Amino acid sequence: MRLQHCLPILLVFLFSCGRPTTDIQNINLGWRLVPIDVISTQCENNQSKTEDCAPQLEEQKLPLRLSAIPGYQNFHGTVEISRPLPPEIEAAIAANLPITVWTPMVSNVSTMKINGHTIGQIGSREPYKPGLYRYYLKNLPANFLQKENNVLSIEMFTPDDYPLHISGADMYIGPADQVYAKYYSNELLQFVLLSVYLAVGLYHLLLFIRRTKDSHNLYFGLFTVLVSIYWFFYTGSRDLVFGDAQLFRTKLEYATVFNLPLLLVLFLQKYFTRKISLSAKILAGFSALNILGAILTPYKYMQFFLKAWQYSLPIVAIYIIVFIVRQALKKNIDALYLILGIFILLGGAITDLLIALNILEIERIGQYTFLIFILGIAGVLANRFMTVQNQVEELNENLEKKVKARTEELSKSLTEIQKLKEYQDGDYFLTSLLLNPLSQNNAKSELVKIHFYSNQKKKFRFRQWSREIGGDINIAQSIKLQNRNCTFFVNSDAMGKSLQGAGGALVTGAIVQTILERTRLSSNEQNYAPERWLKNAFVELQRVFEGFDGSMLISVFMGVIDDITGAVWYINAEHPLTVLYRDGKAAFIENQVVFRKIGTMGLENKLYVQSFQMKTGDVLVMGSDGRDDISIGMLKGERIINEDETLFLNEVEKAKSDLDLIASNIAQRGEITDDFSMIRISYRENEQDAHLSDDEREDLNLMIKEIVKDNLTEFSRMWQGWQLSRLAVESDKLISVLNEQSIVRYQQKKYAEALVLLDAQLALQPTNGEVLYRISRCYARLRRMKEAIEPSERLRLREPDNLKNLVHLSALYYSLGNHERAQYLIGIAETVDEDHPGVRNIREKISNSAAKN
Predict the structure, then answer these.
(1) Cis omega (within 30 of 0) on the bond before 63?
(2) What sign results for the dihedral spanned by CA atoms 137, 141, 144, 150?
(3) Distance of alpha carbon 76 from alpha carbon 43, whole angstroms
(4) Prior bond of 127 cis (ω within 30°)
(5) What are the pLDDT digits (tens) for 584-598?
(6) What predicted TM-score, i.e. pTM, was given to this entire model?
(7) Which of 455, 539, 446, 445 is nearest to 488 (CA)?
C-alpha cells in the first residue's frame, strides 16, 4: 500500500464527525464469474477455446482459485468477478459517507472498478508486467457512485503461467475510517510481532558474534530473522519496499522460506548434540537446490520447486518431532522445555502450508504460534543460566585456595614484568631519541610563521630521564620551488599506541626528511611546481606504507605554502579538518575528508591536490584526532568519547588560535585519550608594514596605466623593479587589470602579450586554476605544445574532473603524437560528460588515427 493512504485517514475522520455509522461488511460471498477474453484453457474433454470451457458462474465465494474451477484449468485470458454492494453500504453511500474497499491478495494483472469506472490497477497489460499477489486498499470516488445498484468488479488477466487467484484474508468494504482503522491495526499488530521476532533474532546473532563457538545462536538467530522477513512479505507494507518488482519479491520470498526448515534443524542439532548429522546435510543440499531453482528459473518452473518444498515439510516435521522426543527421553531438561513450543510451531507451520495449498480458508497463524516457540527458547536459556550459576557457586567455595596459589604465581610474574618493563622503557627511550631530530620546525620565512604543539599519550621514565612517545609527528621546513620561497609542513598521526605508533611516526619522519634533503640538493626537484612536488612526496610516503600490507596506516595533513602570496596547496588523508582563524572567527577550510589514510591500497590512483588562498592576518590550525578524542563522562562503566568535531573549532576561536591555550581549554573539557599534536600557521600576522606607502602606491598605479596603454615593455621593466612581497600587500586592483587586459589580448590574438600578463597574474594568484588554463591555451595558440602541457597538467592535479581542461590537455597530447596519453585523458573526460562536443571530437580523431594505422 502507498504512503498516500495516510492522508485519506485524516480526511475520513474529519468528514465522518456527526454522521451515521455503518459497520464494515464482509463481501466474500455472492460473486459472479464471467470470462471476458479466453486465450486458452483446459476442459475436462481437453477441448480449448470454446464457450463451454470457461463457463459463466454465479455465487462464487472468496478465496477464489481459478485453476480449481472446472473449465478454467490452465486458463490464459481475462475474467471478471463482480457483485452488487451490500444494502448497508448502499445506505452509507446515500448518507454521503466515504467508502473504502480492502481486498485479499489478487493476481495476476488486475483492475478494480466501481460501476465500470477504474479505481485501481495492479500490473500492466501493455507492456505486460505481472502484478502477482498484491492488495487493494481503495476509496470509492463519490463521482463514480450511483444512488443505488452500485456494482464492484475486479478484472483479472494472465497471458502466461501466472495463475489467477484471490487468496488470503477476507474482503471488506465499509466506511473509510473503519476500514483504514482495521487495516492499520492489523498492520500494527503484524509489525509489533515482527519487531519482537527480529529483535530476538538479532540478539542471538549478537550472542554468536560475542561467543562464536555457540553456533546454535547463529542458526536460531538466522531462523528468527528470516521468519520475520518472510512474514513481512504478507503485510500490506511490503509494496512500499518492492513496488512493481513483484517477480523479484517472489523469488526473494521463496529463497527465504526454503531456508527455514534447514535452519531450524541445524539449530536443534547444534544445540543438543553440537554436531551436524548426515540428514541435515542432505536437507541443506535439497534446500540449496530449491533456492537456486527459484532464483534462476522463470515463474512457471518456480512452482515446481515450491511444491517440492511443500511436500517435504511433513518429512521434516516428523524428523524434528522424533529428534526432540528422543532428546526428551534422554532426560534432557532443555528438550522438555522446547517440546511444547516445537509442537505448536510445527502446528502453525503446517496450518500455514494448508492455507497456501488452499485446503484451509482461514488467516495465517504462524506468526502467533512462533511466539510460544520463543517462550520455549526463553525457558531453555533460563535453565542454562541457572546451571551456569550453580557452577559458579561451586567454584566460589574453592576460590580462597585458588586465590592464595594464584597470588604466589602473580608475585613471581610481577618480578619478571618489572624486568621486562625496564627493557621496554629502554626501547621507548631509544625511539624517542630517534624521533626528536626528525620532528623539527625549520621554517625560516619572515611572512609565514609556524608553531608546534605536541602531547603524546604515553609518558615514561627511563633512569633519570622523563620522556613521552607516540604516533604523532610535526615537521616544517623552508624549501625553494620554481625559484619561489615556500614552506612545507606536515602533521601526521600513525596508527597504534605507544611503540607501534612511534614506529609509524619514525618511518614518516625519516621519509619526509629524505624528501626534503633531496629537494635541497637537487635542482630537478626544485623545478617542480608546488602541487606536483607535493603529490610526489605523498606518493612516496604511500608506496613505503603500502609495504606494510595494511598493518600500519597514517592520517596526514601535509602542504606547501607560497611564502609571498600565502597560497596553500595541501592533501588531507583522513586527518581531522583544518581550521581557518580569520577576523576573530574560526571555520573549517574543507567540507569533508576526501582521501583515505596513507597505506591504504590503491590510494594514489585517485589522488589530487587541493588549494587555499590565505589573506593577510590569516591563521591555519591543524591537529591530530587527539583533539576530538576526549572522555567527557562515564556511562554504565564505559567512557563517553566526544563526537562533536566543532568542539575544536570553538576552542580555536575562544583561544584566538593560541596553541597552548587551545590545549589547556580542551583538557578542561575532559580527559584526552590519544596523542595530541597541532600546527599553527600564520601569514603576515601582526605585520607592521601591511600597506603600501604613498610612493609605492603611485608606482603601482603608473604600472597599471602602462598595461592599459598597451606598453608591455615598460610594464615588464617596472614589474622587474618590484619586490613581489610588496606587490602582494595590495594586489587586488593590479590582479583585476591583469585579468581584464589578458582577456583583451587573447581576443585580439596577441597571445604572447597575453602570456606576459597571465604570468604576472599567476605570480600574484598561484591558486587561480583559470589562469593556468588560459596560460596553456596561449601556448597552444602559439604552437608551443610542450610548454602548454605543464600548466594544464598542474590544473589537472588540482581539478581532475575539469572537463574543458581534460579536453584541452588530451588535444595537446594528440597534437604531439602521444595518442595513448590522449586516449587515457579523453576516457576520463567521458566519465564526466561523454556527450560533450569536444570529447566526441577528440575521440573521433583518435579512432580515425587508429584506423589508418
Answers:
(1) yes
(2) positive
(3) 13
(4) yes
(5) 999 999 888 888 999
(6) 0.53
(7) 445
